[in-house]
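Quick start: what a row looks like.
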Amino acid sequence: MNDRPDISVVVPLYNEAESLPELAAWIDRVVTRERLSCELLFVDDGSSDGSWTVIEQLKSKYPYIKGISFMRNYGKSAALYCGFAEACGEVVFTMDADLQDSPDEIPEMRRMILEDGYDMVSGWKKHRFDPIGKRWPSKFFNLTARIVSGIKLHDFNCGLKAYRLKVIKSIEVYGEMHRYMPILAKYAGFDNIGEKVVEHRPRKFGHSKFGMERMLKGYLDLITVTFMSHFGRSPMYFFGGLGTLMFLLGGFTAIWIIAAKLYKQAHCLPLRAVTDQPLFYLALLAVILGVMLFLAGFLGELINRGSSDRNKYLIDKTLE
């Protein structure tokens, strides 16, 4: 007998005590109307406003609620990581706890996963209620992510997403990588990623927990996830290739400078001492940096080969 629920809803939260009762009631109305079995996972990311007490109270009213509480604030990625580890529904949803994501989107997004064959469906908040100071940086950020990743999504950072269960069990969310779930899914081999326009509601309680510093973190994480996607398994391809190029460029330049001096000296032509030429020192610097980059790639390969999960490959089907 399969006891797996139809859906799992993972809700990371930080100081959202006021919104939790309304969110739980809303989700309950949706799953009751659609006759879906559900598990609702609240992940309390070190709240200090009594959010965990509210979750405990809601558990008595909605038995399918589960909860995880952190000792301190670790961040949204950590909350999603732990929520994904516990989730077991056929389709797994993520949404924010601030009531800006609508649970009414759940049935259609579930249908897109099960009937249209998507591995992941990302929400697109086409009409947003955020101030212009957040909207325009977000547009630029999403444009950059589209160009770098090749994934044609308008809103990478929308909290409302739906996944097949095997997708969330195949990706690892860390740092601030929750912004790049579609890229992580694509890197794991799930290329069928869809998008749905979803309702964006004004914040009803509290205030946003994210400041402008998330834009800087977002771009740094984009560089990280792009590098890991292309060179995470073989860092020597990047560091070794770049190091070899710099070593050869610097080496040939130094040889050319020395050869030019010897030629001029042999033919009694005016010449400058090698050590008086800035280009010679730049060539030596390129040689040293090339060696260092090559060694970095070599050490990266050694570390990667010794990693315990180096052979963690996703198997889609087997035949016996």
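That is the whole record. Strands lie at 7-13, 38-44, 65-69, 91-94, 120-124, 161-164, 193-197. The longest helix spans residues 235-266.
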